[in-house]
Structure formats: structure tokens, C-alpha cells
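User: Please work through this fold.
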Amino acid sequence: MPCPSIPDNMQTAGTIGSFFDNMKEILFISDLHLSQEYPDSLDRFERFAFTLSHEVDQIFMLGDVFDFWIGDDGAETLGHHKIEEQLHHISSSGIELFFLPGNRDFLVGQDFARRTGCRLLPDPSIIVIGTERIYLTHGDALCTDDIEHQQNRSVMLSAKWQSVFLEKSVEERLDTALRLRQESERSKQDKPMDIMDVNQSHLENVMRKNQVKTLIHGHTHKPAVHEFDLDGAKARRYVLGDWYTQNSILTVRNGEYMLE
């Protein structure tokens, strides 16, 4: 199936100004789907927040940290104040926290960032570790065979849709979010699994355009390390897993990558 046309701003990533030292420990996580409906995941994240190694300097959260987000003023309604406190605990300990939105929590904004100490990143973004450019994305923009998801994504990421949605009351937004989540789950049941995964040809075009050989993403809930040839050079794609049953963490230290 041919890839649909993807706007340039979904392919070309801006580079974060800071260059991260190879000697520091950097963690990448995504798809925690934190919600009062999943108490085990909440407990798992709380243990993570309060048992971090002193050697960790940065944590990049690559989207769907929350199962859904209805605006920064809805955190109390969703029961997420405790999670915000845990994030603030991490950032106030001296660890730099970065939040790149996913398709479930793209409405996270500056009020949330101020409360937690997170730095918000656009999807996609590029960081540099040592001398290596690393492409970061939640991952759903790479699943271009899922035409329905791409169409819905385009609508909900538009300023018009978000403005109309955020003008509603918190209760109305919650009802809408729950309905959209149910519709999404029903839609997934009718789709072949392969169209909900990354399109390799599109992925390689994105990496080529952004001049990267390493890409990290979540979204698909299929943790793995994929190595492949890209124009005669070795390229790698690290896929982060979800946190429904375990902590899925990619650790980078001294130029070594370890996915657990």
C-alpha cells in the first residue's frame, strides 16, 4: 500500500540545542498509559520515580505517558496530581525531564510543564549524544499504512480542533476522550496488525531526510532493536515497550544502548 502524503513538518525534526555527554546515563521511556484504571502501572511508575540511580542525568518520555489527557486543567479530574508530584520529584532531584507527546497525551501544555519541571519537545525532535544525531518520535506518524489513524491524527493535531475541544467544560472533554478511546479500541480490532506497524520504506525516507542513523520510538508496544542497511551504512531503530506489565526502558551510557 503506498504511503499517504505526509506534511514536511511531520518528517523533518528540529535539533535540540543541548548536546548530551556520552558519559551521562540517559533513559528513554514511552507508553506508560498511566490511568486510575491501571493501578499496577501507577505503582510501577511510583517505584521508578523514587528509585532512580544517581547516575541518571536525563529522561526522555516519548509519548502516551498518560492513557489520555484532556487539558492541563483536567489533571485533578483524571486523578493525575500524584503523578505530577512524582514527575516534579524527579526533576527537582536534578534530572532533566523531557516530554514528547503521543497520540494519547498531545494536549499536555505549559501549565503541566511548570508543575512538573518537564521540558516539552515537539514530535519529532533530534538530540545529539556525543557526535551522534538521534531521531526521537512517539512513533504513530511512522505507521503510514494506517490511513484512518493518520487522518484522525491530522484532525486532532490541528489548532482548530484543539481550540474547540479545550473550550468545552472538563466534564464534556472527559466524555469525549472516553468515547474516542472506545472508538479507537474498536477500530483496532478490525485492522490487520501489520498496517498498525511502522512502514519501513517511509521510516528510511524520514531517516535519510533527517540525516540520522538511529531512531527511537514507542507507540507500537513491540519492544525490539531493528538493525538494517541505510544507503550502505548500519542503521538502528529502537522500539520502546509499554508499561502494562513491566518497565520498558532504553538506557544509553558511554555510547552503549541497552533495551530492557
